[in-house]
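User: structure tokens for this one?
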Amino acid sequence: MSVARRARLLVPTSAGSKRLLAALLLLLIACCMARPLRDPDLWFHIVCGRWIVSHHEVPTQDYWNMFGAGKPWRAYSWLGQVLFALVEKDFGLRGLISLELCTIFLFLLASVWSLASTSRSLLLGFLLTLLSAVGCYWHISLRPQTLTWILYPVVILLCERVRARGLSVGYGAKLAGILCLWANIHVSTVIPLATIALLVERERRQDGLRCYSSPASSQLC
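Assistant:
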């Protein structure tokens, strides 16, 4: 068997093989990006999550801050805190480390899926995801806002599909569900809302330019 033929056998040719190889590479990158659990806020989130699980409600006053004890306060990241508390209760530190690894992997996977779909190039989507991974490396930690990193690429992809195919009940329900999930994980829901508003405004401006680009079409606008 020639060297060229062996090389062709080692290089994946089908779309499924390429996606599997990309997923394995993303898992390897996620393992390299995962860091020790050194964020002190993680343990506060776990304690707060334990309280929510025990009392079956979201606290409305601060019980843990020595300077703000008894003052009005609401756990706006309650869903992520409950997740951290349940994982720590059932699986301990190994479970938290595995959760951090899964969070990073899902963020990378969602980014590749979104960028590759919008650019129609798996290679370009993978390279752009690597660039975003480098930019996010020093901010990696097991916090509620990190969970929203998984949702943001999905929001962008859904907006692009709405732009290309039009708004449908399915796309509207998916966007509404993601926004509701985001709002209960972290208070930064303004980010996807601002992204949607900017994309809508961009599309409106482009429609205006196309509308008045020719005299025939300007009469219909």
